[in-house]
Write a structure and sequence with these properties.
This protein has 119 residues and is α+β, with helices and mostly antiparallel strands. It has two helices and seven strands, in the order ββββααβββ. The chain has helices at 24-37, 63-76, and strands spanning 2-4, 14-15, 18-19, 21-23, 87-94, 97-105, 112-118. A three-stranded antiparallel sheet has the order 5-6-7, covered by helices on one side. A two-stranded antiparallel ribbon has the order 1-4. Strand 5 and strand 6 form a beta hairpin. The chain is globular, with a radius of gyration of 15 Å. It starts with a strand and ends with a strand. This is Phage tail protein. It comes from Gluconobacter cerevisiae.
């Protein structure tokens, strides 16, 4: 599948032929980031879609609870092989910043992939 490249919170990117596209494991990575940053209930066609990590900014960090909800949402993504284990680690980096490391198997390629970000 090919889609427009869109990293959550950024603008669409122009390329020589129009809008930049993305496919494969990068499409999965962008989709997972969008899923983790979307607030549940904001996507009207699928109300249970999303984790809402931006709402957790400024809250007390509860790594186990965060890891559980992130793991559940990653496993529900159609581009992730749900028969394989998903590993999630949330680390408190201090000053209200969390680092999130996610490891999963891409359903299309069958390859182990990782997604890391701070919020």
């Amino acid at each position: 599948m090919i889609a427009f490249s869109h990293v959550f919170g950024n603008d669409l990117v122009l390329s020589a032929g129009g809008l930049q596209t993305v496919s494969g494991s990068e499409l999965t990575r962008q989709g997972l980031l969008r899923r983790l940053l979307t607030v549940a209930g904001n996507y009207v066609w699928q109300l249970d879609y999303g984790v809402g990590l931006p709402l957790m900014v400024g809250q007390v960090i509860a790594p186990e609870a965060m890891e559980s909800v992130i793991r559940t949402q990653v496993q529900e993504d159609a581009n992730v092989d749900s028969s394989q284990a998903v590993s999630v680690t949330v680390t408190d980096e201090g000053l209200g910043i969390c680092r999130c490391d996610v490891s999963y198997v891409d359903a299309g390629s069958g390859q182990q992939q990782s997604l890391s970000f701070s919020y």
